[in-house]
Amino acid sequence: MRSRATAYPLVAVLGWGVMFPILASALNRVDPLNLTTARYLLAAVVLVAILLLREGAGALRHGGRALEVVVLGVVGFAGFNLLTNLALEHAAPQQISLFVATTPVITQLVRWARDGVRPKPLLLALSLVALLGVGLVITRGSLAGLGQFGLGGLMMIGAVLGWGIYTHGASRFGEWSPLRFTTLTALAGTAAMLALSIGADAVGWQHAPAAADLVAVAPQLTYAVLVGAVIAVLAWNTGVQRLGAANAALFMNLVPVTTFAVQIARGYRPEPVELVGAAITIAALIAANLAARPRTASLPRPTAVTDPVAVTEPVAVSAR
User: Fold this and answer.
1) φ and ψ at 75, to 5 degrees?
2) Residue-wise pLDDT tens digits, 46-104
3) Model pTM score
4) Which long-range contacts (CB under 8 A, 24 or more apart) does 45-54 make?
């Protein structure tokens, strides 16, 4: 039974790993802000429909916690996803995926900053090793390549930090179902994205996509909404229920592996130093996840969002 349960997070991370090349290809036709907004408008419709069917209209109420929901939705949904799409204009998908794989470690650091729960020194050391591996991939082992870290890398640091704050904040909503928490925060984040996109279009920072552009990226949007958002997130939450958050989080390290495989299948030929850097990062993150787990086995948690150290894929969170 336990071996069957591993299929759920595996489906989720494979879906998310494919996501980055798909989003990168869509950015050739649609601006990052408009692409993100279009995606999450569609995802929000799906989420609200599922929530109404499963929990009724009462689940759409904030229960006096509107401010928390709005802050987490803006920081987690809007912040992470907008910064990720913007970063994809400055960095390759395989580089972005390595940053995303650091989410479990970043969440531990957020807990340290906000709750005073200091992570183990080994975890901090492994975090530095993981970042070293990311640096090797981005610079290809040359100091001259440090400039390539640039804006895209800084955006992804901000994106992952925002997602760590969101994940940590989710622990305060243990009485809500994962579907309700994610839907309400997704609505708040989507509203922020829509307002930002309208403003950016108005001042000329970007241009509203034409109908032909949206039709051209329809396959990417379909995958991003249905597979990356709905199916992957449902599979992830099921896996967390059956395996526990600590065990499920280990699968997050397969995200960059999947992205690299997709890019190689599309014709990309990584240099040996990039493969070494990716291997260093993945190994360090797996070790960091193991170091963060309690020594005694704990019972599986009921949901992914009630665990303060649970990690949910940043792109897919919009579909919860």
Assistant:
1) -70, -45
2) 989 999 999 999 999 998 999 999 999 999 888 888 898 888 888 788 778 878 777 77
3) 0.74
4) 46/225, 46/226, 46/229, 46/230, 46/319, 47/179, 47/182, 47/183, 47/186, 47/187, 47/319, 47/320, 48/183, 48/187, 50/179, 50/183, 50/230, 51/179, 51/180, 51/183, 54/179
